[in-house]
Amino acid sequence: MANKITVGHVHMSGCTGCLVSLADNYEGLFTILDNYADLVYCLTLADARHIPKMDVALVEGSVCLQDECSVEEIKETRERAAVVVALGGCAAYGNITRFCRGGQWNQPQHEGFVPIGDVIDVDVYIPGCAPCPQQIRNVCVMAYLLLKGTPEQQALAKAYLAPLMALASEGSKATSSEACGCDIMTKVINQGLCMGCGTCAASCPVFAITMEEGKPNINRDMCIKCGACYAACPRAFFSFDVVNQYENILGIIDGAMNPGGN
Amino acid sequence: MDYLGKYKSAVAARSTCSEVLAGSQDGGIVTSMFIYALEEGIIDGAIVAGQGEKPWQPKPIVATSVEELLSSRGTRYNVCPNMSVLKESVRKYGLDKVGIVGTPCQIQALRKAQLYPVGLRDVCDKIALAMGIFCMENFSYQSMTQIVQDHCNVDLHSLKKTDIGKGKYWAYTNRGAVSQIPLKLTHKYEQPGCHVCLDYVANLADISTGSVGSPDGWSTVFIRNNNGENIWNKAVAAGIFETKPIESVKPGLELVTKLATEKITKNQKELEHRATFGVGKGLRNPYI
């Protein structure tokens, strides 16, 4: 028990889809909670009313500027968590809440929603809507190894998390990232880097990207700004140090999720 | 720099199936491997380059039958975004064991996607066999059209096969004519994204293959990891391929190493050039 890390799920303006995605690891979630992490805060699943001190905060949802409680809680989260993870497109990039203009019941005056990085510094981004269960699982295992592992495991976890930390440091500079298909255009294709693999199209949760003549064609009206396409693109970021070890890393994650060895 | 990537063994090989060889690019390795894997239940289907809407335009398809695999034989020399149907292969086609063939960059994308499956729910642990193909560069459909129609003076409808080898771009027609142009004439049509690629022989595939290094009609094959070795050995034992030690064939691995070194060195220079592209401003480098 003493060796576990403490994790909290902080719910801002999101749909709970990211938390459901975490839970969709099914027995894997139990493995994580049994062996690696204590869930010290989670309004849906744990009985704690106030944000406690914790190692890792998984923040879901964007911050509503007109909701005093949300603003207070995101600041508390930053003060009390060693590592703040933006879990999912809303926390990382605003996602669908970018399109809110207020007027909805029962809080019509709630109209300004911003990614958490606009209010606090964020350490790690997990883009996507929702980020897939295996991506959340991988980050959980790597966060555990980073905080509790051997020096070797720590180095590996650091290398694995580095690109997600880079996304966070880039995204936290307000307005630096469109976090939508536009990123594929401006940071990949416009830069002469696209080779037409199609990973962006496969990663888009709303099928806003189709491959036309070997290149992504982005339907901007359909894009929800979750950031999945850019994060998935091998020409957005690619670390040979990490990916060359894919078998080793997948083996470590697999081993961690099957501690009994079956 | 590790130009050929990690591998357990390398051989020259070709399919023993005459039907595959009748339409394959070289040794029919990918097609025969997928047919074998499909029939043995090693994969439930494979993402391959099927026929698109226009002549010689590939389209990624999820092939679940031998017929579909056979009709996808051969190299088209233009971009086929195989990764784009990866999610579909699992979520729509319901495959539990996915085969996929890809160029080195596509296999890089695949391995990155397995490690960072941002939007690929329940997909990353279902990759059963990743076949990589050697690749120096690729062309857009329009570029390929330009090369074949304008430079080689061959109509796409009468084109039977295209090939790159011996420093030339070749176009063979259905009526037996052969047109060839120096490969250097095609360089300007290359896809720009290929110029930052640092992989020639699909270092991250389970098994990678290509013509370079082996005699005409044969392919060089790298068996890279346990999964690849396991499947390859079974296929060879089942008589799917005939093999020769790579040391016994000409030009052998020496040429593969030479071309890999040339490609990677050239593209590393391009990355350096990009870093100082403007006046005090550079272009983005994707490698971190």
Automatic annotation (TrEMBL), chain A:
Stretches assigned to the 4Fe-4S ferredoxin-type domain: 185-214, 215-243
EC numbers for this chain: 1.12.98.1
Keyword terms: Oxidoreductase
PROSITE patterns: 4FE4S_FER_1, 4FE4S_FER_2
Pfam families reported in the protein's UniProt record: Fer4_10 (PF13237), Oxidored_q6 (PF01058)
Superkingdom of the organism of origin: Archaea
A GO term for molecular function: nickel cation binding
Gene3D superfamilies the record matches: 3.30.70.20, NADH:ubiquinone oxidoreductase-like, 20kDa subunit
NCBIfam families named among the record's database cross-references: FrhG
Family according to the record: Belongs to the FrhG family.
Name of the protein described by the UniProt record: Coenzyme F420 hydrogenase subunit gamma
Organism: Methanospirillum stamsii
UniProtKB/TrEMBL annotation, chain B:
Keyword GTP-binding: no
Gene behind the chain: frhB
Cofactor: FAD
Keyword Oxidoreductase: yes
Enzyme Commission numbers on file: 1.12.98.1
Keywords: Iron, Iron-sulfur, Metal-binding, Oxidoreductase
Domain (Coenzyme F420 hydrogenase/dehydrogenase beta subunit N-terminal) ranges: 11-87
Protein name in the entry: Coenzyme F420 hydrogenase subunit beta
InterPro entries listed in its UniProt record: Co_F420_Hydgase/DH_bsu_N, FRHB/FDHB/HCAR-like, FrhB_archaea, FrhB_FdhB_C
GO molecular function: coenzyme F420 hydrogenase activity; flavin adenine dinucleotide binding; iron-sulfur cluster binding; nickel cation binding; oxidoreductase activity, acting on CH or CH2 groups, with an iron-sulfur protein as acceptor
Residues annotated as domain Coenzyme F420 hydrogenase/dehydrogenase beta subunit C-terminal: 96-248
